[in-house]
Amino acid sequence: MAATTEAGSGANVQPAMTPESPPEPLSDAQRAKIERNRQRALLLRQARLSSRPYTDPSDRPRGQGKSSQGKLPGRVIDSGAGFLIEEDEEGEDPTAKIKVVHRPGPILEPDRVACELCNKEISDSFLFNSFDVPVCDGCKDMEEKHKLITKTEAKQEFLLKDCDFDQRDPPLKCIIRKNPHNQRWGDMKLFLFYQS
Known about the structure:
By secondary structure, this protein is an alpha+beta fold. The chain is 29% helix and 12% strand. The protein is built from six helices and seven strands, in the order H-H-H-E-E-E-E-H-E-H-H-E-E. It has helices at 2-10, 28-51, 66-69, 126-131, 151-158, 162-166; strands at 75-78, 84-87, 113-114, 121-122, 148-150, 174-177, 188-192. It has a three-stranded antiparallel beta sheet with strand order 5-7-6. A two-stranded antiparallel ribbon has the order 1-2. Strand 3 (113-114) and strand 4 (121-122) form a beta hairpin. The longest helix has 24 residues, at 28-51.
């Protein structure tokens, strides 16, 4: 009896397609559904690839290598300010554009300059190192003559434009400090009132 139940359940299973039987033609509705699914899959794939650019050459689809495209797509970085920055992988490194300024050591005996106010030789001075003003730290007057002003104050006080700070000869020297009002805001450029 067990053999008859097994044979009965086997009747419900469809036989495997044999090479002799031709496949049934698809209806127009089935073809339209297949095409819609294919288009949706292509859009999803494209969105996934555009949100995650290629970082490894093995991740790249065939035909998009260096020889066929010429330039590799860059890496996208979220700036946190509401926009994305595209970084070139082949091109220049963004850190290569930044000039690193090292503080000079103290001035040796034969090269020392004299202070404008007290005529003493200067070995190390904040104003001389930052702004090339030969005034020693003891003589500097940070309240009046040698006070530091922000770029905005310098623009308002002396009616300057941005090009006056960057492009005129000689360019105005400044020091860059973190904004004391909010650390996440941009850095402040402080200019010497005396040089403006």
